[in-house]
Amino acid sequence: MKRRNNEKFLKTVVPLLLGLVFLLIIFGCYRLITKKNKTFLQTIDKSLYASISHDAIYGIHLNFKGSMPVLENISDFSLVLANGKDEIVLPFESNVEDDTLTFTTSNYINKGINLEFLPTGVYYLVIKAVTMEDDKPITKYFSVKNDTDYQNLEYYTLTKDGKNNKIDIEWDTYEECPTLRFTIKECELPNDVYDITIDPGHGGFDAGAVGTLDGVTYHEADLNLNVSLKLKEILEAKGYKVAMTRTKDEDVSIYEPGGSATLANDVKSKFNFALHHNSFAYEASYLKGLEVYVASDIEFDFANLLIDNITKQANTQISPKEIYQTAPGIYQRYFSEEEILEDEVQPSNKTTSMIYYYNIRELGGISTQSTNDGRYYDINGYVANPYNKSNNTTEPYLLELGYVNNEDDLRNIVGHEEDYARGIYNALEEYLSTNY
User: Fold this and answer.
1) Do the Cβ atoms of 47 and 176 come closer than 8 Å?
2) Between vectors from CA 155 to CA 177 and to CA 122, what angle results, nearest 5°?
3) Which of 202, 206, 330, 342 has the most CB atoms in a 10 Å sphere around its CB?
4) What does the DSSP assignment read for 343-383?
């Protein structure tokens, strides 16, 4: 009986003791981290602050713009994430004029701070500078204050080897000193968060373009879906979590939850691929090949990789179309003045610097100058884009994979959908393997 009581005692007490030890370890680590961070925050110079006037996450990149008054003896500026032990040097373009430092992490919306490469830990965003005191160089740190219309940001990294990090970017104060804290820790991806979204164009009542090959009629909506399903299969086999606006022949809403302009941001996707196939009028029957439509103010690294990999993998070519072409195979269609004057709502809030295609413009929030603030509801029933003013969005691409009424293109497309899908995947992997 005594032995049983001892066994019962051990089974009850030992787990409690182990749990207590674990809690003490966690508490000790927390105290050490807190102490380390407080020690670093105490070193921040409170005589000057940098004012952050813009912050936005677009795809996998975070961008800041800001300014700071500077004194004559301050120089050698850099932007860093620091905690008193480690420092991460961030991209930083700056200019000093009239005793004011202006800076940005990038002039491109899809460059800046690559959030995929930040290590775990707690860091603070600061301006690091060198001041001269008694003819000696002294390193100083200056904190940042929030002069944007936005507060905290949340980001989940893409799934890699079955793992993700969560990044909480939070405005706070320490002893009346404004701070911007980055807390980066490993996490499980929530059920409602996805890595990548795919939007197979058209569907349901809208069949899209039509082509005929060997007496068989092909509808664009079906071709879009076939490539999209192959791409989803390839991405999921590599561990990515993928959502689609449709997985069968059905109508898809635009601005409602799960719509072609909302799903990507509903699920915090990093990249959205809108897959389409093109068609030409009779007088342009020479047209064929791939066209990649992109947002304004972006760097073309990823777009070029899409072109290189798709044309190679699918044995196709870039389109010879010149209108809207910005670079070989890359297109940016903007609103024309005539289209703005014909807008259903006047005065229009559109400008000639805005991308025409909603599945680029509306998915990028403030980064891509989204226009649908609800003003079109009375006319065509479009509810407002819930991400119209968002500063945390996906990075969208519209791919026209070929011309369905060009026999050469259609013959290359039908039965080879996996080649086009694998070209997109290869481009993504190549892009993500480099710290752009």
Assistant:
1) no
2) 45
3) 202
4) -SSSS----TTSBS-HHHHTTSGGGGT---SSTTHHHH-PP
Token pair 């945390």 is found at 392
Confidence at residue 380, expressed as pLDDT on a 0 to 100 scale? 84
Q: Is the pTM of this model over 0.85?
A: yes
Contact 399, 292 (CB under 8 A): yes
For Cα atoms 227, 356, 392, give the angle at the middle one, nearest 5 degrees.
Answer: 75
> Which tokens in the block code for residue 161?
């080897």
Using alpha carbons only, how large is the chain's radius of gyration in Å? 26
Fold (CATH) for 196-432: Aminopeptidase (3.40.630)
Closest CA to 272 of 333, 228, 233: 228
Phi, psi of 219 (to 5 degrees): -105, 140
Query: Is the CB of residue 394 less than 8 Å from the CB of residue 61?
Result: no
Mean pLDDT, residues 54-72: 95
Query: Across-strand partners of 182?
Result: 123, 169
In the chain, domain spans: 45-187, 196-432
**Fold of the domain built from segment(s) 45-187:** Immunoglobulin-like (2.60.40)
| 207 burial level (CB within 10 Å; 0-12, 13-18, 19+) | middle
Side chain identity at residue 159, one-letter code: T
Asked if 186 and 193 count as a contact pair (C-beta separation under 8 A), the reply is no
Segments in 238-274 forming alpha helices (H): 263-266
| Residue pLDDT, tens place only, 31-58 | 444 444 668 999 999 989 999 999 999 9
Distance CA 433, CA 436 (A): 9
Minimal CA–CA distance to 156: which of 128, 176, 135, 184?
A: 184
